[in-house]
């Protein structure tokens, strides 16, 4: 599991450790890790051109000490000082002693950035508030234009470390070297898009429980169910899928395709698209009446393509009161706004940003700009586990617990119907006995992995059915050791 901690906890942990260590130890550890990464990226340090963007805090100090280490190995290092009178004095002395230069003329610095092999962004780190200020923004733009690599110190300056919100201009990094632990803003979009490849340099701090966590490949084997000797199709769990309509039969087929690739022993389809479903998947049990009469299931998936007619309203009331976990997606989410039935078991909602916005009474752009805050708010307000789809899919519980962020996926997943496959898959895992939190995050992981397998490298358009077809391979991949 990859974990991210709140800035306040990082600061407390840093203070606790610093009381036990000689002054400057943590900064030296950070700078050494940073310099090692830069050296690796440069290949040959001697004769390379390195520009440091240095702000007024310790983030700039890290950049200066790392610059000093590179200068000692023969790099030409110049620091552009954004706040000359407040630049970290020890770092500045170290850089000068190693033969590096410091400039305060930011126009001259911009010209140096154009020709740099590596630009180190030490403008601001976890002490940053708001977007980049006016003097720093042109330097960030120059680094973006430059052919050299931009390496962010701790996090790209201008992104909010705790939330991933990007309120103004920000540095776009190719690589981020972060210290001690990940910061939530590095893993959640839009901030994650600015971070590039993230490398963690341990500095010995112990910041306690995380606020965010991402499943790692090695976590999957422990979470995915494996049938035992005594398993039969009912013991493995039956998932009921209420999806599709005469108008949208495809949604039923796609949700069922996802459900069949999950861990349930059987899939029971309920709705008017049974013919289309059975033609494609003869193994599915079908039922044309309401869900209450369909036979036993261990979890329901309801919503994709069901519309908002009276049958759909009746169906959502029935499944919410059924006593088994329910996943609500797509049209089902709109119906949830009017239903008065209290869920009788775990509830997992799988909105995209637009659907989450509608449930919260805000707009899509607001949700996309502050995904972490909105997923938490929706989980609290609806007393449900919420899986917010999109790039960096998030899964939040209604009770205080780290939010899960999905590390797999590709922009090619943004294709019609891929969400239906995801809801079927997650519902199947719910039926197999996973909690809503595990079912949602494991499904998102496998779904993203399947999409990557289907799209290949460097990537090409894929359909939702391609994603479903790639799920068994993704599952095998996920449980293969090492
Ligand atoms: N914690 C740890 O374990 C370790 C932390 N370490 C390092 O320390 C870093 C944190 O250092 P920090 O606390 O000095 O804050 P930092 O991020 O440099 O910036 C604060 C200054 O920036 C300014 N400023 C604010 N917003 C701004 C903006 N938008 N645009 C421009 N400027 C802005 C603000 O100044 P003012 O508002 O007064 O002008 C303030 O003085 C951390 O990220 C890591 O790199 C490591 O060395 C080792 C262990
Ligand atoms: N930019 C993106 N990067 C990665 N994945 C994305 C992106 N946009 C959407 N997705 C994923 O694609 C799927 C789309 O689901 P959804 O919006 O419900 O579409 P549909 O309703 O057509 O099935 C979700 O799994 C979502 O997380
Ligand atoms: K930075």
Automatic annotation (TrEMBL):
Residues that hold AMP according to the record: 389-393, 419
InterPro entries tied to this protein: CARKD, Nnr, Ribokinase-like, YjeF_N_dom, YjeF_N_dom_sf
SUPFAM superfamilies attached to this UniProt entry: Ribokinase-like, YjeF N-terminal domain-like
Domain YjeF N-terminal: 10-211
Alphabetical keyword list: ATP-binding, Isomerase, Kinase, Lyase, Metal-binding, Multifunctional enzyme, NAD, NADP, Nucleotide-binding, Potassium, Transferase
MF term (GO), any: kinase activity
Residues engaged in binding (6S)-NADPHX: 58-62, 125-131, 154, 251, 305, 352, 420
Cofactor(s) this protein requires: Mg(2+); K(+)
Enzyme Commission identifier(s): 4.2.1.136, 5.1.99.6
Keyword hit for Transmembrane: no
Catalytic activity field: (6S)-NADHX + ADP = AMP + phosphate + NADH + H(+); (6R)-NADHX = (6S)-NADHX; (6S)-NADPHX + ADP = AMP + phosphate + NADPH + H(+); (6R)-NADPHX = (6S)-NADPHX
Domain of life where this protein originates: Bacteria
Binding residue positions for K(+): 59, 121, 157
Bound cofactor: record note: Binds 1 potassium ion per subunit.
Keyword GTP-binding assigned: no
Pfam families reported in the protein's UniProt record: Carb_kinase, YjeF_N
One GO term of the biological process aspect: metabolite repair
Ranges where the YjeF C-terminal domain occurs: 216-478
Transmembrane segments: none
Record's subunit section: Homotetramer.
Function: Catalyzes the dehydration of the S-form of NAD(P)HX at the expense of ADP, which is converted to AMP. Together with NAD(P)HX epimerase, which catalyzes the epimerization of the S- and R-forms, the enzyme allows the repair of both epimers of NAD(P)HX, a damaged form of NAD(P)H that is a result of enzymatic or heat-dependent hydration. Bifunctional enzyme that catalyzes the epimerization of the S- and R-forms of NAD(P)HX and the dehydration of the S-form of NAD(P)HX at the expense of ADP, which is converted to AMP. This allows the repair of both epimers of NAD(P)HX, a damaged form of NAD(P)H that is a result of enzymatic or heat-dependent hydration.
Family from the record: Belongs to the NnrE/AIBP family. Belongs to the NnrD/CARKD family.
Record protein name field: Bifunctional NAD(P)H-hydrate repair enzyme
């Amino acid at each position: 599991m990859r974990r991210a901690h709140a800035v306040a906890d990082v600061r407390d942990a840093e203070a606790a450790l610093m009381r036990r260590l000689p002054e400057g130890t943590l900064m030296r550890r950070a700078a050494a890790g940073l310099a090692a990464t830069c050296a690796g990226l440069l290949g040959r340090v001697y004769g390379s051109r390195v520009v440091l963007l240095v702000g007024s805090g310790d983030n700039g100090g890290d950049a200066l000490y790392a610059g000093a280490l590179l200068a000692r190995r023969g790099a030409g290092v110049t620091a552009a000082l954004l706040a000359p009178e407040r630049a970290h004095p020890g770092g500045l002395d170290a850089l000068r002693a190693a033969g590096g230069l410091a400039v305060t003329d930011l126009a001259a610095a911009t010209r140096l950035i154009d020709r740099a092999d590596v630009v180190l962004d030490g403008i601001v780190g976890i002490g940053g508030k708001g977007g980049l200020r006016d003097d720093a923004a042109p330097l960030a733009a120059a680094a973006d234009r430059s052919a050299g690599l931009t390496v962010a110190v701790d996090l790209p300056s201008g992104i909010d470390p705790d939330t991933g919100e990007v309120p103004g201009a920000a540095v776009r990094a190719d690589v981020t070297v972060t210290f001690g632990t990940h910061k939530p803003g590095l893993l959640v979009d839009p901030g994650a898009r600015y971070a590039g490849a993230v490398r963690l340099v341990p500095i010995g701090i112990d910041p306690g429980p995380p606020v965010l966590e991402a499943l790692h490949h090695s976590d999957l084997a422990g979470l995915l169910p494996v049938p035992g000797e005594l398993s039969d199709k009912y013991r493995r769990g039956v998932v009921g899928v209420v999806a599709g309509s005469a108008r949208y039969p495809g949604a039923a087929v796609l949700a069922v395709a996802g459900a069949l690739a999950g861990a349930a022993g059987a899939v029971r389809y309920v709705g008017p698209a049974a013919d289309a479903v059975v033609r494609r998947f003869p193994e599915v049990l079908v039922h044309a009446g309401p869900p209450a009469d369909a036979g036993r299931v261990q979890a329901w998936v309801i919503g994709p393509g069901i519309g908002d007619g009276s049958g759909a309203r009746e169906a959502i009331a029935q499944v919410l009161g059924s006593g088994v976990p329910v996943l609500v997606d797509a049209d089902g989410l709109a119906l949830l706004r009017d239903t008065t039935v209290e869920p009788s078991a775990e509830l997992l909602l799988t909105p995209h940003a637009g659907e989450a916005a509608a449930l919260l009474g805000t707009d899509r752009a607001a949700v996309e700009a502050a995904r972490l805050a909105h997923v938490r708010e929706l989980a609290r307000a609806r007393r449900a586990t919420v899986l917010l789809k999109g790039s960096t899919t998030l899964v939040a519980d209604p009770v205080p617990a780290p939010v899960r962020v999905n590390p797999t996926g590709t922009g090619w997943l943004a294709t019609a119907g891929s969400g239906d496959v995801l809801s079927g898959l997650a519902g199947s895992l719910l039926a197999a006995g996973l909690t809503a939190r595990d079912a949602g995050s494991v499904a998102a992981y496998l779904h993203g992995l399947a999409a990557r397998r289907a799209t290949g490298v460097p990537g090409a358009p894929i359909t939702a059915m391609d994603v479903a077809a790639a799920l068994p391979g993704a599952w095998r991949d996920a449980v293969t050791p090492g």
